[in-house]
Design a protein that fits this description.
Order of helices and strands: HHHEEHEEEE
Helix content: 25-40%
Number of domains: 1
Mean pLDDT: 88
Shape: globular
Number of strands: 6
CATH class: Alpha Beta
Largest sheet: 6 strands, mixed
CATH topology: Nuclear Transport Factor 2, Chain: A
Number of helices: 4
Strand order of the largest sheet: 2-1-6-5-4-3
Amino acid sequence: MKQLFIPILLLFIIGCEQKEKPDIEQLFEVDRRFSNSASTNGFNNAFIEFAHPDAVLLRPNKLPIKGKIAIISFYEKLEANGIDFSWEPEGGDIAVSGELGYTYGIYTIKVDTITEKGTYISVWKKDEAGNWKYVLDTGNEGIGD
């Protein structure tokens, strides 16, 4: 009986190895690329490009905007000329599975001489190709410097 105990114990230990936690810096880098795209290609295009097919936008005084097709329609109607919109992640996490994560931070919108800052959160999910795309995005306006 003792001779079986050690091999069974070793199999149990090997089978219970924990997965290595995914690196949050990879998700922060995707969020930064999203922000850079908003600055260089216009935030309308960036929000379309980085949207997961099942994405949802939560915007003030609007019902949830559900799905990439609805997001495209929303941003095609929005006038974005002269608006500089950028953000920087300050925190977040990724599930141990590596398929779902979130980032949050501070955004800045500049229109002419007016600058507004606020907070945001984006929930990220990997698409079928393994690329991070936001699946939920929302923000709160009105923080001071």
